[in-house]
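Fig. S4 source data, part A: sequence.
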Amino acid sequence: MPAKIPATVVTGFLGAGKTTLIRHMLQNAQGKRIALIINEFGDLGVDGEILKGCGDETCREEDVVELSNGCICCTVADDFIPTMEMLLARDPAPDHIVIETSGLALPQPLVRAFNWPQISTKVTVDGVVTVVDGKAVSEGRFAHNVAAVDAQRAQDENLDHETPLSELFDDQIACADLIVVNKSDLLGEDEASKLVDRLQAASRDGVQVVKAKMGALPVDVLLGQGIGAEDDLEDRHEVHHHHHDHENDDHHHEHDHDEFQSFVIERGEITDPAAFAEQLVEVIKAHDILRLKGFAAITGKPMRLTIQAVGPRIETYFDRPFKSGELRSTRLVVIGQAGLDQTAIQKALID
């Protein structure tokens, strides 16, 4: 019987750095052919676009699959299993599958799904990686911007668990085989060491806790753990039981979508990217924008600029060249609580 294909589950709250970690992994994949499942919410698929734009043969566009129907642990039967079957049927099959969950996903139900008969003989969970925002957790929060996490929760019509963030964090730690303390460069040495010790004490025996900056981890640390997590569910059980099994349940939850809003701003090329980044920070602060992400064209530059902001903390980098015939424009997604002055924000970012 052929060896099972290893799969790595990457979990963690919005803004912890999951996409950045995966992007770094792809850029240093050492020839591994990696397929990605991205649990993106909304219609714009920016996280998937960010990963497709890495420009490496190990992450071709057809190897990136986005599941945008809601929290992956709540849509196992409808979305996850069929997607896995599709990836496993490819010829040649991927060397490794990486699954980036939404920040609200409970990892245990997803790991449990690897025992479904449709996929159990073909794939195994190599390991569960939990990414935490080191600065936020050390300050007693579980995400850099809790309101942005709540906005993500409100957007998911399929979410069938209303787990408090503190309990969801406990479950993500309980299921982890590797805990990545990301943004460790924002912590003092003593502060970082205390957080590592605290997370080590809260996790199972044998779980590694590592510090990272910008999600930069060696691929052989991230992949190839060989855990077989689906056979080890007893030791990584949920600390809190809030997830409902709706495999045969037609019940639907109602969410109040009026508390949050999002819109897209489009403009032409940017002449000074550094000045534009400063402009973004000022607009984000002035209007209490929760999340901003998208792409920009810079005058005189052949590469597309990726922009991601959680609160006023902004990350920018060039991801890929513009394609022949592709419109050189700037497109940003703005997410915030209801009441954002869209006209004022648009004017501030276009002028």
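Fig. S4 source data, part B ends here. The chain has two domains: 5-231, 257-350.
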